[in-house]
Specification:
Strand content: 15-25%
Largest sheet: 7 strands, parallel
Radius of gyration: 20 Å
Shape: elongated
Number of strands: 11
Distance between the termini: 59 Å
Strand order of the largest sheet: 7-6-5-10-8-11-9
Order of helices and strands: HEHEHHEEHEHEHEHEEHEHEH
Length: 261
């Protein structure tokens, strides 16, 4: 019996995901990945200078490094990549299910970031850094129309990619509904909204909160807006324009913490 087309496509997608690898580069990103026991590491290419700087991390990882000439760096990277003489081929991290990651640690109400078609890896990397600093349980984005795990993202994240859960889900609206079913209040960021983040959370700061940010320019898609519990804005002190999405993410996370910490 011939398999239905959707079954074949699902199997092909699963096989492609299993074979997917990522090249991380730069001393900081490579060091953090080498020291991450969750990371499946495949191939390490370094110059003599980088090997000396990463000696402890390489030893701890148990990997055998391939030595490269700095003038003819052999890792398959974009020529514009600032690799600092270090590149590491890895498998993307598996953080588990949305439910597992977003339950929180039990010490305070969890906060998560959700990204609606934010595709710039530098923005997502910066958001991961902010999420780690402010203790977010996860950064969540759709599998399509979002920044995948790449070397550029990892370098911008400055190590946060190895520690901060970055979940890419099939459908963002479904993920929002799942979080709502877990008791989350889902707030969509919109500069024209009537309420600020702080105002929307008065009296409910002990609830888990998800903050949804859209791409710069288009903002949140209509479906996403309709799925959120409320649309909120960052409380500005004056008419000074708008924030970059990564800066807005940091401010929104800080504002959502209230007095729970």
């Amino acid at each position: 019996m011939k398999k239905p087309k959707w079954v074949v496509e699902k199997e092909q997608a699963k096989k492609a995901a299993a074979s997917e690898t990522v090249w991380l580069f730069g001393l900081h990103a490579v060091r953090d990945a080498l020291e991450n026991p969750r990371r499946h590491k495949l191939r390490l290419v370094v110059t003599k200078n980088a090997a000396d700087k990463l000696a402890d991390a390489i030893a701890a990882s148990g990997m055998t490094a391939e030595m490269a000439d700095p003038r003819k760096f052999s890792a398959p990277l974009d020529p514009q990549s600032v690799h600092q003489g270090a590149a590491l081929e890895v498998k993307p991290l598996d953080w588990g299910t949305l439910e597992d990651v977003c339950l929180g640690d039990g010490t305070r109400p969890p906060r998560v970031m959700m990204l609606d078609r934010v595709t710039d890896p530098h923005n997502v990397g910066a958001i991961l850094r902010s999420a780690e600093v402010f203790g977010a349980s996860a950064v969540i984005a759709p599998r399509h129309h979002s920044a995948p795990e790449t070397g550029a993202l990892a370098k911008t994240a400055s190590g946060a990619l190895e520690r901060q859960p970055y979940l890419r889900v099939r459908n963002l609206s479904d993920a929002i509904a799942a979080l709502q079913g877990m008791g989350y209040i889902v707030l969509g960021l919109d500069g024209t909204a009537g309420e600020t983040i702080e105002e929307a959370l008065v009296g409910v700061q002990d609830r888990p909160v998800a903050l949804v940010l859209g791409a710069e320019g288009p903002g949140l898609r209509q479906k996403t807006r309709e799925t959120c519990d409320k649309l909120v804005r960052i409380g500005f002190s004056g008419p000074f324009g708008s924030l970059n999405v990564s800066n807005a993410a940091a401010v929104a996370l800080y504002a959502s913490r209230g007095q729970t910490d």
